[in-house]
């Protein structure tokens, strides 16, 4: 199991979470969700806290064995995952050979299977990254992240460089992969519609803090989550007490004095004083 224990970062603030199923992390670009991939793969160290995989802390001395084989990622900008002087096939081969799993031909054979699953022609393997359309680049990075069937695949916002039709294609590709590979997917996005389609559970991040978690994005209670679903967020300040207190239509003096405790509301767990009577 992948577990985050009291993670503090540039934005993340006491982020704790156990990943036991396909997870959606909902939040805007300044929510701190973009830090999660970097900390998980130790591309950047958190200021405090630890990340555990099957009870063992991910550290510098074991992270190279974990990357791609146990935990992989698709970054917001898919082109950042490629070395422009190598063709696409070489990227698959480098991952396989660096983990002593097989040779170049073995890597290409598996790559062809996943490229086909994602609706691409195998000729894409002979291309270089600058020759890929944004949609092709996103699909190829999905194949790179999943072809070894790691335990966990983290996917940052899918919107980079693609239109609504392309977004729908990528969402369907993720759903297809979820039904084919054994990996658990952690999708980080600012669109509730994306999270609702690809996840079994979700958490909502605002300014680095988890403010709501549950299993159905259509059933939400925190004012920030509701505003996000309605598309009615006009300001985005970090308040005192409740982090959303400076923006919330229901904010009171109490909201600015004390950070709410997590309480069960319906099927969710919410940090909001509106529901304090349920305690």
Beta strand count? 12
Biggest beta sheet summary: 8 strands, mixed
Mean pLDDT: 95
Along the chain, the helix and strand elements come as EEEHEEHEHHHEHEHEEHHEE
Radius of gyration: 20 Å
Provide the β-strand percentage band.
15-25%
Structural class of the helices, strands and pairings? alpha/beta
Helix count equals 9
Q: Distance between termini?
A: 30 Å
Taking pLDDT < 50 over at least 5 consecutive residues as the criterion, the unreliable ranges are none
Please provide a written account of the structure.
With 279 residues, the chain is an alpha/beta fold. It is built from nine helices and twelve strands. The strands form two sheets. Strands 6-7-8-3-9-10-12-11 form an eight-stranded mixed β-sheet, with helices on both faces. A four-stranded antiparallel β-sheet has the order 2-1-4-5, with no helix packed on it. α3 (88-98) packs across α4 (104-117) and α5 (134-146) runs parallel beside α6. It is elongated and about 65 Å long. The two termini are 30 Å apart.
Question: What layout of secondary structure does this protein have?
Answer:
Layout: E1 2-8, E2 15-19, E3 23-26, H1 33-40, E4 48-53, E5 56-57, H2 63-66, E6 71-74, H3 88-98, H4 104-117, H5 134-146, E7 152-155, H6 164-180, E8 184-189, H7 192-198, E9 201-206, E10 209-214, H8 223-230, H9 253-257, E11 262-265, E12 268-271
Parallel strand pairs: 3-8, 3-9, 6-7, 7-8
Antiparallel strand pairs: 1-2, 1-4, 4-5, 9-10, 10-12, 11-12
Helix pairs in contact: 3-4, 5-6
């Amino acid at each position: 199991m992948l577990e985050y224990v009291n993670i503090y970062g540039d934005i993340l603030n006491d982020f704790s979470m156990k990943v036991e199923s396909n997870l959606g992390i909902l939040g805007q670009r300044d929510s701190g969700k973009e830090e999660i991939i970097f900390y998980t793969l130790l591309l950047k160290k958190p200021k405090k806290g630890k990340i555990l995989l099957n009870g063992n802390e991910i550290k510098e001395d074991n992270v190279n064995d974990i990357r791609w084989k146990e935990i992989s990622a698709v970054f917001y900008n898919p082109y950042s995952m490629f070395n422009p002087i190598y063709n696409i096939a070489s990227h698959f081969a480098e991952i396989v050979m660096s983990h002593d799993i097989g040779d170049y031909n073995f890597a290409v054979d598996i790559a062809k299977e996943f490229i086909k699953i994602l609706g691409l022609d195998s000729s894409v393997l002979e291309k270089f990254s600058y020759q890929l359309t944004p949609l092709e680049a996103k699909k190829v990075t999905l194949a790179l992240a999943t072809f070894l069937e790691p335990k966990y695949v983290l996917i940052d916002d899918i919107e980079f460089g693609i239109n609504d039709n392309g977004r729908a294609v990528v969402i369907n590709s993720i759903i297809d992969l979820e039904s084919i590979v054994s990996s658990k997917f952690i999708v980080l996005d600012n669109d509730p519609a994306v999270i609702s389609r690809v996840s079994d559970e979700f958490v909502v991040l605002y300014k680095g803090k988890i403010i709501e978690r549950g299993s159905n994005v259509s059933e939400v209670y925190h004012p920030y989550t509701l505003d996000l679903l309605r598309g009615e967020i006009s300001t985005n300040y970090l308040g005192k007490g409740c982090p959303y207190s400076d923006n919330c239509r229901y904010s009171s003096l109490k909201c600015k004095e004390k950070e709410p405790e997590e309480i069960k509301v319906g099927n969710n767990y919410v940090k909001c004083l509106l529901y304090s009577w349920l305690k």
